[in-house]
Design a protein that fits this description.
The protein is mainly alpha-helical and about 375 residues long. The protein has two domains: about 1-35 and about 270-364, no CATH class; about 45-270, no CATH class. It has 17 helices and no strands. Helix 1 runs antiparallel to helix 2, helix 1 (about 5-25) packs across helix 16 (about 310-335) and helix 3 packs across helix 9 (about 190-205). The chain is globular.
Length: about 375
């Protein structure tokens, strides 16, 4: 059994909460300066998840002599394709519930077909299509990193920086990119270096974590400086709604190093908070998939509170409610074996403890 990386539990649980916060605040950034700042502060969230995904995959496979493509694809795609299909159906049903209730099934099915191809079933489902592409090329990346780490880092870095810069320049009307059938945001080159960097860090985990552990203060200063740079960029270029730009890349990697240095100090902590962090890390994928549905349901059900949600106490309360309700629903669902089909980890079987250990080391 592989050593449990509890610092990664802290990182994954924090990333999950950060994604919830970015979605909660996204509707209020114009109305509330505090929501704007918090929203920008969370811009590392999705890239951080991709870094951790690359790390956890490679950490399990780092000592293998060879990687079985067929077994990898069978195991990985079964964990992500089914949740993608099911949640796209759920979210499009929610979006088009009036049409479905009126018997206009053709309208819903047409939207479902487009959303499945484009990853637009809801605001966060594009992430799963990114991961499908990265999983598809992972065996090639694994082999490349094992044989020549320097070129692996250099090429993936250039590809992602170039891709993200082009998207950024397009947003600033400096260049004009052609319209594609799918959104640019789902294309894997935009995220390749995040994934590859996570793999590289896993390969040199002990050396890197040891080096970072004594640099928390310095990394904290760098974190503040990189966040200030991101705020200036977002303000003057009006790109505050995008996580695809060079300043986010800088901010994300500095954040990763800073958070990891803190997580290393927390890895031996015990207690209620640590147990919650462990649980949230295990169930982070399902929390990620579920929470936007909880958020929009609350906003639509309590629409008379719309003005209150825009205030700082309002969006903080909304964050707390969405987090609590999402975690409660996931906890309840985790007692059912079929939860695995929607991205959860079942706990009601003898294999649950083994699943938790594998999840902690990336062998999902």
């Amino acid at each position: 059994m592989q050593k449990r990386l509890r610092e990664l539990d802290w990182m994954r649980s924090f990333a999950a909460l950060s994604v919830i916060m970015i979605h909660v605040t996204s509707g209020y950034v114009i109305a509330n300066p505090a929501a704007y700042v918090v929203n920008q502060a969370m811009r590392y969230a999705v890239p951080l998840f991709i870094i951790l995904s690359g790390f956890l995959l490679f950490y399990v496979d780092r000592n293998r002599d060879q990687l079985s493509w067929s077994s990898f694809y069978k195991k990985r795609f079964s964990k992500i394709v089914a949740p993608y299909l099911i949640w796209t159906v759920i979210y499009t049903l929610y979006t088009y519930h009036d049409a479905v209730a009126a018997g206009q099934y053709g309208k819903w099915l047409a939207a479902l077909k487009v959303d499945l191809i484009r990853g637009t079933g809801f605001v966060h489902l594009y992430f799963l299509l990114i991961m499908v592409q990265l999983y598809a090329i992972y065996p090639l990346l694994w082999k490349w990193l094992q044989k020549h780490a320097a070129s692996f880092l250099a090429v993936t870095f250039v590809v992602t920086v170039f891709s993200q810069t082009m998207i950024y320049f397009h947003a600033l009307h400096i260049v004009h990119l052609p319209r594609l059938v799918v959104p640019y945001v789902i294309l894997f080159p935009l995220w390749l270096f995040y994934f590859g960097a996570g793999m590289y860090v896993a390969k040199h985990n002990e050396t890197i974590t040891s080096a970072l552990s004594g640099w928390t203060v310095q990394l904290g200063i760098m974190y503040i400086a990189s966040f200030g740079l991101l705020l200036l960029d977002s303000h003057y270029t009006h790109t505050y709604d995008s996580s695809i730009k060079p300043t986010v890349m800088v901010y994300c990697f500095v954040s990763y190093a800073f958070f990891l240095s803190i997580a290393m100090k927390l890895k031996d902590v015990r207690g209620q908070l640590a147990r919650f962090s462990d649980w949230l890390a295990i169930q982070s994928f399902l929390v990620f998939l579920l929470h936007p549905l909880v958020l929009v349901w609350i906003q639509r059900t309590y629409h008379e509170w719309a003005q209150f949600w825009k205030t700082t106490p309002g969006f903080l309360l909304l964050f707390g409610i969405v987090t609590a309700v999402s975690c409660l629903l996931v906890y309840m669902a985790s007692w059912l074996r079929p939860v695995i089909w929607i991205g959860g980890i079942p706990r009601s079987t003898p294999a649950a403890s083994s699943s938790k250990q594998k999840q902690a080391t990336g062998a999902q």
